[in-house]
């Protein structure tokens, strides 16, 4: 009976985590304020409850990190890395484009001359998505078949390959996410400043160039991470 | 998302902020005012205004060019622009823009009541109401005889209902009662608006709250100065002072006890900004107290455009446009009455 409670506690733990994350990101800011306190308290209570139950009933061995890392296939890590690389990059690019785009449209009503010049900001944001897809293709080309099924037969090199690909995906994904947001916010300021005074655009463009360089740094580091990857037998 | 408004502001309000900033670029500058002040007739002014953002404002239609026509057309532009912004807006910007209209609604209600007391026809009064503050039940306001009747029969359905908590009393509506009601309504409105801006946080709070604090303090000073010589006692005055300003609480207590202009000036001495407003100028220019308050208001409103991703730009744009309308009408009056000496008493904005 205690085992049943513990089995369900795992599921509630994951679902309550998902609840908080969803409430923070999807809901309108004012609605989420009511829910996130409840979800956080709920999660903390379930963590404590699960932890105490595991300790009391001498089932601590179930919380086994080594088992998790060796039993999960390197393919899972590799594909997660590929997925994160492209999806987080696209989120960053989209975020930046809408921030800049709405300001260009608004400013372009009374100052139509800004419309063409400010597309450069949109292009900088789009470049971030291109970095993401390039890295996703590069990483996915490294995934090869291997014929092991147990941790010993799979071998250390395949595990290393899996983790490297996951890490590279995370690196390029998050750095492109923040790069896209940064370029978007600066581009919005550039559009509105350009609408007031045409000579300001080039100066703010320099700030944008620095902002887009950080996306490039993420790509470089990700290439370095996957340079030694060799999956297969 | 409230920690980082830059990330989510443009979803709902990016286009409108860009639009308002574009409209702000059309606000007349010092050189425009200089040109207007050089004019000798209203026809010259019309010519100069054609080269600004106003374009064909005065050339449309074939009515006689008078100062009142100019005034109406200027107010009409502000009205069109505000209605365009309000129609495209989403919450919380729509609530914010509604808050801006409530002050005009309060003025309209008091105008209708005082007009009804003087037995003026409602049809005659309605065109004199401020167009930004229209609400559905306007025609029926003149019928009420007491505050309670006014509230329960008419105003409970309008957006002004929450501001009536303090103002409802069983006393009959008379001239003085209408003024007191206006001030109590305005106090409740200002405090509600202040709480709304405070809750938004971030740049909206940093820009709007000083503006509203100044407005509250300005009302307190004006109420005090205007009550000298009437039978409004200090205790009654205290109930009318808005409490969201910098004078609250000590300054308001001192103001409630003040009996003449010197004592008011002494209260202002404690606050550097207000000390400057109340101090006598060296060059003896004929700026009244109202003018100096307007100057400070313009200064605070221009600060709103230095920051991005906040709601304050919309409020500041409307207020600066109104100031511009006042400036142009002042210049037009001086031109038509040939009083060129006073023509430079407008307040330049940018």
UniProtKB/TrEMBL annotation, chain A:
What job does this protein perform?
A: Proton-conducting pore forming subunit of the V0 complex of vacuolar(H+)-ATPase (V-ATPase), a multisubunit enzyme composed of a peripheral complex (V1) that hydrolyzes ATP and a membrane integral complex (V0) that translocates protons. V-ATPase is responsible for acidifying and maintaining the pH of intracellular compartments and in some cell types, is targeted to the plasma membrane, where it is responsible for acidifying the extracellular environment.
The record's section on Pfam families has:
ATP-synt_C
Which keywords accompany this UniProt record? Hydrogen ion transport, Ion transport, Membrane, Transmembrane, Transmembrane helix, Transport
Q: Which organism is it from?
A: Esox lucius (Northern pike)
> What domain of life?
Eukaryota
Q: How does it assemble?
A: V-ATPase is a heteromultimeric enzyme made up of two complexes: the ATP-hydrolytic V1 complex and the proton translocation V0 complex. The V1 complex consists of three catalytic AB heterodimers that form a heterohexamer, three peripheral stalks each consisting of EG heterodimers, one central rotor including subunits D and F, and the regulatory subunits C and H. The proton translocation complex V0 consists of the proton transport subunit a, a ring of proteolipid subunits c9c'', rotary subunit d, subunits e and f, and the accessory subunits ATP6AP1/Ac45 and ATP6AP2/PRR. Interacts with IFITM3.
One of the record's GO molecular function terms:
proton-transporting ATPase activity, rotational mechanism
The record's subcellular locations are: Cytoplasmic vesicle, Clathrin-coated vesicle membrane
Sorted alphabetically, which SUPFAM superfamilies does this protein's record hold? F1F0 ATP synthase subunit C
Family (UniProt): Belongs to the V-ATPase proteolipid subunit family.
> By its UniProt entry, which InterPro entries does this protein fall under?
ATPase_proteolipid_c-like_dom (IPR002379), ATPase_proteolipid_csu (IPR000245), F/V-ATP_Csub_sf (IPR035921)
Q: What is its main location?
A: membrane
The record gives the membrane topology as: Multi-pass membrane protein
Q: Tell me where the transmembrane regions lie.
A: 39-57, 77-98, 119-143, 163-193, 200-224
One GO process term, biological-process aspect: retina development in camera-type eye
Gene name, Swiss-Prot/TrEMBL: ATP6V0B
Gene Ontology annotations for the cellular component aspect, listed alphabetically: clathrin-coated vesicle membrane; proton-transporting V-type ATPase, V0 domain
Q: Which residues form the V-ATPase proteolipid subunit C-like domain?
A: 80-139, 166-224
Protein name, as recorded: V-type proton ATPase 21 kDa proteolipid subunit c''
Automatic annotation (TrEMBL), chain B:
What name goes with this protein? V-type proton ATPase subunit
Q: Which UniProt keywords apply?
A: Hydrogen ion transport, Ion transport, Transport
Among Pfam families, the record links this protein to: vATP-synt_AC39 (PF01992)
Similarity field: Belongs to the V-ATPase V0D/AC39 subunit family.
Superkingdom as given in the UniProt entry: Eukaryota
Q: Which GO terms describe its cellular component?
A: endosome; proton-transporting V-type ATPase, V0 domain
Show the coiled coil region(s). none
Protein's organism: Esox lucius
One annotated GO molecular function is: proton-transporting ATPase activity, rotational mechanism
Quaternary structure and partners: V-ATPase is a heteromultimeric enzyme made up of two complexes: the ATP-hydrolytic V1 complex and the proton translocation V0 complex. The V1 complex consists of three catalytic AB heterodimers that form a heterohexamer, three peripheral stalks each consisting of EG heterodimers, one central rotor including subunits D and F, and the regulatory subunits C and H. The proton translocation complex V0 consists of the proton transport subunit a, a ring of proteolipid subunits c9c'', rotary subunit d, subunits e and f, and the accessory subunits ATP6AP1/Ac45 and ATP6AP2/PRR.
The keyword Ion transport is annotated on this UniProt entry: yes
- What does the record give as the function of this protein? Subunit of the V0 complex of vacuolar(H+)-ATPase (V-ATPase), a multisubunit enzyme composed of a peripheral complex (V1) that hydrolyzes ATP and a membrane integral complex (V0) that translocates protons. V-ATPase is responsible for acidifying and maintaining the pH of intracellular compartments and in some cell types, is targeted to the plasma membrane, where it is responsible for acidifying the extracellular environment. May play a role in coupling of proton transport and ATP hydrolysis. Regulator of osteoclast fusion and bone formation.
Write down the InterPro entries for this protein, in alphabetical order: ATPase_csu/dsu_sf, ATPase_V0-cplx_csu/dsu, ATPase_V0-cplx_dsu, V-type_ATPase_csu/dsu, V-type_ATPase_csu/dsu_dom_3
Give the Gene3D superfamilies listed for this entry. Answer: ATP synthase (C/AC39) subunit, domain 3, V-type ATP synthase subunit C domain
